[in-house]
Amino acid sequence: MLKATLSSWEAVARRNRALFLLIAFLFLLVAAPALATVFDLRLLFDLFMTLIFAVSIYTVSVKRWHYVISTVFFAVTVPAIWIEYIFPGRAAYVVSQSMGVLFFLFVGLRTTVNLIRAKKITANTIFAAIVVYLIAGVLWSGIYSMLEMVHPDSFNLGGIDVRSAAYRMLYFSFVTLTTLGYGDLAPLTDMASAFVILEAIFGQMYITVLIAWLVGRYISESEETPSTDRPPSETRNEGRG
Question: Domains in the chain and their CATH numbers?
Fold first, then answer.
């Protein structure tokens, strides 16, 4: 009985891989600032980022080579994040951010490919579509943080060290991705502005192209549903008419 239950749960988990990554992102976006009154926000940010990295391996590892590549990224990125606490310096920070960007780029691309290749629109397909959008926001925040470390004053952080401003960069990234544009945080250099433009364009194109494609495909699949689900009497009456 227990074995059958575990097998059933495992099957459900495999069918909804993207859900776990979505939950991990929600921890980063919501739980981190909620717990910031008790714990250091930077520490919470890095803890939840580590969780996201770990869950990402499970999410994208459909094939063995996916697992190998994502594990290699994890093995380089996560130690660099925590070594920087012991030996703070520009090199470790830039390595952790650049590898994190590459990691999310790989995870985002693999999730998108799996999304497009899905034979049917399911709950996992919807979760994956949301996850790709969240990945984009986190990816660009890593780019902004790395840019600020290499070229200080690329953003108006108000004198806050970029290491302590990770969540502010994340906030700015999602404000840009959604084209809200509050204006409280803004790029100050041409290079920073270029990345902001690219993210804003991506955010709009993602919604108008991929999400619209998913909705259109879902409608098409609904229309192609066979009429055999209707009562036989209805089918016979239509035939007589």
Answer: 16-220 (1.10.287.70)
